[in-house]
Amino acid sequence: MTATPPMPAEPAAPTQTAGTARSRRPAVSAVAFGTFLLVTAEQLPIGLLAPVGSALSVSEGAAGLMVTVPSVVAAVAAPVVPVLVGRLDRRILLVALMGLMTLANAASALAPDYPLLVAARVLVGVAIGGFWAVAGGLAVRLVPAAHVPRATAIIFGGVGAANVFGVPIGTMIGGLASWRIAFGALGALALVVLFALLALLPPLAADRPVSLRRLAGRLGDRGVRVGIVATFLIVTGHFSAYTFVGPVLRDLSGIDEQFVGPLLFGFGVAGIAGNFVAGAAVARRLHRTVLAITVALAVTVLLYPVAGVTGVGGVALLVVWGLVYGGVSTSLQTWMIKAAPQAVEEASALWVAVFNLSIGLGALAGGTIVDALPLRGILWLAGALFLLAGLAVWSARRNESLR
């Protein structure tokens, strides 16, 4: 049941054929490249805190605002940007946001002082929130219904690829050349993506503009509410623990510091695989897949204090963690599409806002726990949040649209 009357469906792909799916593959790939670039831009400063702080005379703690600010701004921009642009063609919107990303990274590379660099990162957050809010549900408008889960998995494959390749390569460029060159390279790549989107995306008319009333109306839909709650709990739980996975590997599993980096690379590779496994699974059993992911995450982190106290156990659980969490974005975005098939963009905007906000809250909660309790405390916190998310997902078991 929903608290709002039925609304016209989102504009669909022009024809529902396998030929359409094939012809739209380059467009789907261009959007995936866009998500890759956005996540890389959001997280790249993690590897550049020291050189930026040294060059602009700020502490590494203050330099951390380069990560926090765009995440918070993205959470606000996700619902606000679609409302502000009204009926603007979504192809034009995505191109414009990628143009903003180009300018923001160029401004970051040229910033003479830290306040201007943070201001440039605000623009990055606007681009991230607005782009992701539209791109997350774009598969339903580019390919036939049968191909939507796979296309969604491809689009969100850019997220995992950014963690595995984008951020490490950008950090390496910053180390070998300078942090300004790293930001400049991101700006150049954003310009490439801009032209790819312009050339490959079809017109994406917005027949029904997003409004604040309709955004609020989506929360009257039980399936959407469950998806939002599950997203909040899962993402907060994950980042509360994963932010401190380095200390967990070192102090609990006894793994030498020099191996932490390669192991995190393995976590990312497992995540890419998990993304596509989940994409195939949700096409058949959406509710069971999301429930299985949630329970598997809970079991994995709760086992860490017991089975992860050796090197072998810690590595095995880390790989499982990466594989399972890799399916979160694809499965939850598909959940939102299925929960609100007549308002995909509105549901996606809410989802992206909660997702980005949860990243910051998770890291904050994890830091608070680490300071107050033993390291195992963040694993217990994450496990408890995953179990609560599992209960929320289980409560929607009778919703036919989510099966």
Automatic annotation (TrEMBL):
It is a multi-pass membrane protein. It is found in: Cell membrane. Keywords: Cell membrane, Membrane, Transmembrane, Transmembrane helix. It comes from the Bacteria. Residues 27-401 form the Major facilitator superfamily (MFS) profile domain. Pfam families: MFS_1. The chain crosses the membrane at residues 30-50, 62-85, 92-112, 118-140, 152-173, 179-202, 223-244, 264-283, 290-307, 313-337, 349-372, 378-396. Residues 1-23 are annotated as: Disordered. InterPro entries: MFS (IPR011701), MFS_dom (IPR020846), MFS_Efflux_Transporters (IPR050189), MFS_trans_sf (IPR036259), Tet-R_TetA/multi-R_MdtG-like (IPR001958). Its main location: membrane. Residues 1-11 have a biased composition (Pro residues). Residues 12-23 have a biased composition (Low complexity). This is MFS family arabinose efflux permease. The lineage of its organism: Bacteria, Bacillati, Actinomycetota, Actinomycetes, Streptosporangiales.
